[in-house]
Amino acid sequence: xxxxxxGRRPLPGSIDETMSLLEEAGYxxxxxxxxxxxxxxxMKRPLFLEGEAGVGKTEIAKVLSKTLRRRLVRLQCYExxxxxxxxxxxxxxxxxxxxxxAEAAGGVDRDELASGxxxxxxxxxRPVLQALEPDLAGAPVFLVDELDRADEAFExxxxxxxxxxxxxxxELGTIRAAEPPIVIITTNRTREIHDALKRRCLYHWIDYPDxxxxxxxxxxxxxxxxxxLSAEVVAFVQRLRTMELFxxxxxxxxxxxxxxxxxxxxxxxxxxxxxxxxxxxxKYQDDIQRIQGSEARRIVEDVRRELSQA
Length: 310
What we know:
With about 300 residues, the protein is of the alpha/beta class. It has 17 helices and 9 strands. The strands form 3 sheets. It has a 5-stranded parallel beta sheet. Strands 3-4 form a two-stranded antiparallel sheet. The chain has a two-stranded antiparallel sheet with strand order 6-7.
């Protein structure tokens, strides 16, 4: 079958094609990100993305899945994540029923029974195994999201998958992907990831966008937002990121705030409305208290002065 017949879309052949692929789904990337993503796809190497929360790391995997028309397999990491939740586990109730039925039938061959109950028929596939399964549309996009939230010991489970596109199950043997999945690993850097895992990946740090790129993101994602409001929102958020806050707002919060202000029929920033809606933009009370009131008014005035002089 051809790529067209299976609905399979070929990988981008250049950095420019990679940027176009991202823009097709409304993702505004700089050339450095498009370059490392192109190399990751070309070299069939996992892409390790670090950066603050809300800068668009997870969105990369979603965009690739959408534009390449590939299945997205997401492994959301958390503290205590183990092999039974991430890779596989056996369907013990079904195995017990199989054993009871075999015993009731009589003449049980124990070796044959053991081989039967530890077969793929009783295997519950979790995200890692699902990512190794073949697909007519092509190898899936495998998103390992927020790896830093998982325990350090869990990283060892991923090494074989990242290096060889395979996993070993003691009762079954080694399961290998016919085609390596497109692997995107994200981390918010709440802890360091071991070098053994990083060495198997290409690396990129996604930073907060500058004002020009954030305005472009705003126009792309929220074309209905008034031009003046869009410019003032971006300038306000850019100013907040220079301050010592517990958590600076990411692009996701910028878009949410612009949407909220539009829902309130705002065409430009109003200091009172800014103070009342800071909970959309900032997620910690200490940060909100610091910006509310006179500080919000001062920043709005600075933003207007700055934009009027531009």
